[in-house]
Amino acid sequence: MPFKNRSEAGQKLARALSKYKDQHPVILALPRGGVPVAGEVAAALNAPLDLIFVRKIGMPFQPELAMGAVVDGDATLIVRNEDIIRNAGIDEMQFNDICNAELAEIERRRQLYLGGRERVNVTCRRAIVIDDGIATGATMRAALRATRMRDPKWLVLAVPVAPSESIVSMREEADEVICLEDYESFDAIGFYYQDFRQISDEEVIEILKRFPPKPRDRDTRCA
After folding, report:
1. Phi-psi region of 89 (alpha: psi -120 to 50; beta: other; left: phi over 0)
2. pLDDT > 70? residue 222
3. Cβ atoms within 10 A of the Cβ of 82, count?
4. pLDDT, tens only, 150-174
5. What confidence tier does 221 reach under pLDDT thresholds 50, 70, 90?
6. Alpha carbon distance 133, 144 (integer Å)
7. End-to-end CA distance of the chain
8. 130 has which bridge partners?
9. Confidence of residue 2 (pLDDT cuts 50, 70, 90)
């Protein structure tokens, strides 16, 4: 079992990312499971912590199977898994209905977690996108593409565990990919944690409170 829990995974990931400590990185977490991992990295690197709101667009009859993902930001970004959509015979109305439901959940979480908190600026900075693991890669691919649209200087994907195949494909989306454990034969992400309980909304809020935005985090100037 590679990791005791998400906090331990974050501490190990922070050591792998230590070279960025003096480069003023921005840490971006996928809630909810990615937040405890990213919180450890942000603390170790003395970096600001912000969220990327991305939701899987699951199949109507098999929600865990992603037929796409949606990210809400300055502009909504939708990533589609056309092979799954076509093979399952999903029409546009079905896809859009589920997509809109996920956008509503994103908005609920944004208000709950952030309220009026300002976003951290990533333009011309090193952005490190973190989750507790990768399964199909649909949500992470959407998160990376949305972050790329915000014009970071360098885009890093950092996760504790993922399928080897997904890591290879993610190298097309990020400038650097750091994965502590990857496997050719991959089970569910929770298989690689002793404690993989669901993270509550309250835990996300408490972790974010440890990283209040600072004036320099809103600076849009490029060095």
Report:
1. left
2. no
3. 9
4. 999 999 999 999 999 999 999 999 9
5. low
6. 14
7. 43
8. 29, 158
9. confident
pTM over 0.85: yes
Label residue 133 by pLDDT band (50, 70, 90): very high
Check if the beta carbon of residue 69 is closer than 8 Å to that of residue 135. no
Phi, psi of 125 (to 5 degrees): -115, 170
CA angle 199, 200, 201 (to 5 degrees): 125
d(CA 28, CA 89): 35
For every residue of the chain, which 3-state class applies, written as one string? Answer: CCECCHHHHHHHHHHHCHHHHHHCCEEEECCCCHHHHHHHHHHHHCCCEEECCEEEEECCCCCCCEEEEEECCCCCEEEECHHHHHHHCCCHHHHHHHHHHHHHHHHHHHHHHCCCCCCCCCCCCEEEEECCCCCCCHHHHHHHHHHHCCCCCEEEEEEEEEEHHHHHHHCCCCCEEEEEEEECCCCCHHHHECCCCCCCHHHHHHHHHCCCCCHHHHCCCCC
Neighbouring residues of 120: CB distance < 8 A, sequence distance ≥ 6? 26, 28, 48, 49, 50, 213, 217, 218
| Phi, psi for residue 126 in degrees, rounded to 5 | -85, 110
- All structural domains of the chain: 6-53+115-218 (3.40.50.2020)
Residue 57: both structure tokens together = 């667009």
Tens of pLDDT along 80-89?
889 889 998 9
